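Possible regression after last week's pipeline update?

I re-ran a chain I had predicted before the update to compare outputs. Posting the input and the new output here so someone can diff against the archived version. Not blocking, just want to make sure nothing changed silently.
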Amino acid sequence: MSSHKQERKHKRSKHEPISNDDYFVKSAEFRMWLKEEKDRYFNDLDAEKARHYFKKFVKAWNRDELEEKYYKGINSAQLSSSDNTGYKWSFAKKLDQHELDSVRDSVDTMTGGGRQQQRGGRRAQAVGPSRPPTTGYDQVEEEEREERERAERRAQRKAESKRKRDRREEYLDEVAPKETGREAQMAKKRALNAYHKRERSPDVELDESDLYGGGDDFKAA
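New output (post-update):
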């Protein structure tokens, strides 16, 4: 009888129900819910408290009490560091700008960006009626511009790949260390599987060694 009641209850729900076993799969949604609904930070909680609040999150989820954004799914990239901890790094924005500047400097080094910058003023003045195609100096200049754009795209993809690897490591540090011993290894594997399922982007390809580490990583653990 109780199973029939439970089945009817799930049919009334607009969304797929979850359980306490979805602790890792729904980690991103849980962290945002903690910050926005409970004014608490995931990294400030010990394992017992985190599980306690996750049970409340599961109940709210299954009762359709959450905002629609939680059911649509939240990528960990949507979470800022302030959603995980109350400590704010004053240099965070400066670090992002420094990373962007480093990418641009690398592109300049590969493509002779200094010369391109000097010639940019002359190109900017070429506004008005179209001119017939030219060769020689202008052709070389155009080829350098195209090469610069390609190099910048490559550098941006490389930086994005690094950010994704860093986010993966932060994700594992946030969820897996909550457990100990053999359970910690199993938790880390589950976290990796959940991350791999949620975070893969078609724009940045990550091979297995990037996602899981070397083949002997878990054996050595």
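Follow-up from reviewer: compared with the archived run. The chain is about 65% helix and 0% strand. Marking as no regression found.
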